[in-house]
Amino acid sequence: MGLIRAQWVLDDERGPVADGVVRVEQGRIVQVVTGTAPIRRLVNALGEKPLDLGAGVLCPGLVNAHAHLELTALEGRLSGEGPFAAWVGQLLRERAGCKDSDLAGGVQRGAQELLAGGTTAVGEITSLAISPTWAGRSPMAVRLYHECLDAGDDSRTQGALEGVREQVAATALPPAISPHAPFSVSAGLFAGLGALAKAGALPITIHWAESREEQEYLLHGEGPLAEHLGPAPRRPGLDLIDEAGLLGPRTSLVHGNYPMAGEPERLAAAGASLVHCPGTHRFFGRDEFPLDRYRRAGVNLALGTDSLASNTALDMRQEMALLRQAQPGLNPADVWSMATRGGARALDLAGEVGGLTPGARADLVLFQVDSAEPEAILDELTAACPPVTALTLAGRLQEGLPRATSASDR
Length: 410
Description:
Urease, subunit C, domain 1
């Protein structure tokens, strides 16, 4: 696909601009041209008519910085009420009762739900070695993180480490790892994963500061989690992550609902990202997310859906809308950035996805909007879950969505 035209194009620097063309070669964006006269000159120079997608705003695909597609089959089975430890136990029981074929089908269904909402890049956590098959074939941009934990049991540490090494070696995609969380990864496993990440310069994602129960266990060895885990480190989780060499610019920490004093500043100084999941936050009825603390510290912020075991949809449009409802003072442009460029950086895919920039994948989404003013369009994109009317992956128009036809210059 060479030239793709739309009524509006969301320019990375200027916001929505009327009448734009994205030039694509070999699945990559070459340039973005706006305005009738510049577009006519480009068309004449190339001797090629654009594929005109018509009404709507052409945007980079949304970036879901944290997902568990392997849990899609558990949709609607769990409750967020009660202790977090109880939800974890329920999750493990429900997952154990699923057939591998059901879990694999859930991965496919979850991926289709992402695409239907305009998400074209995802950070997927694999703990069951089921989603790697899908990820290796998917036309989406997938950052596949191999999860590892030993629940603080030293007898499981070496096996867990060997297991993640085997998974990384067997996957065709660039390797990345996910030490599950400070409460479920022993000091020995953290050290081994830190060495593995350093040797391969691997992207990392870690669940962190998700619940008060996590903090209660890590710092004091008390609470519901203590009933299921070994002796507590009695130290902050961020210290454990940092000392293992796992806190840096290729690291994303997920949730971060209960940071301690000074921790947002430590994330910013390390160049790490923080992924907020508004749908899951609502599911568990968490306290107000401390967004302003991360923003003041200068932390790169991203959004994710988490899984259907703790959310009602795998839809980044909904995540943006929920964030705006919870944080009504936020600028729509900042929310959009969290769902695109912020997510790309969190996945260590900056410049590859999340923007209409030369060299990026031509993963484009046409959203139907009613607004006719640039500021109103950005407000609608982040608050109203506008329909997706066309979508390309690496420049290829996807089946199952309304198709556009070639049109002469407007």
